[in-house]
Amino acid sequence: MKIISRIKKKITYNENEFEGFYKNHHIFIQREPSESSICGYIYYIEVRNEDGIYSYGGYWSGERSDKYYPDMEDAVKEALIGAQLL
Length: 86
Fold this sequence. Notes:
Elements: H1 3-6, E1 9-13, E2 17-22, E3 25-33, E4 41-48, E5 54-60, H2 72-82
Antiparallel strand pairs: 1-2, 2-3, 3-4, 4-5
């Protein structure tokens, strides 16, 4: 099962932005251009708990090689793992 399909309350979901709630945490991810990244973009990830307290976040490239470019599914998975929600 894909990670994004587990998230029942999605506000925005497309290749450039994701916003939703999972286990009372607000997840916001935005894909941004990056000249330093092989694939030409990086993700800004922010996860906050129900009190608005920052749980996890920052910039993430997700590149593992010059042949693999991460997508929004990978970024959401990184957000959930980083915030210890999976």
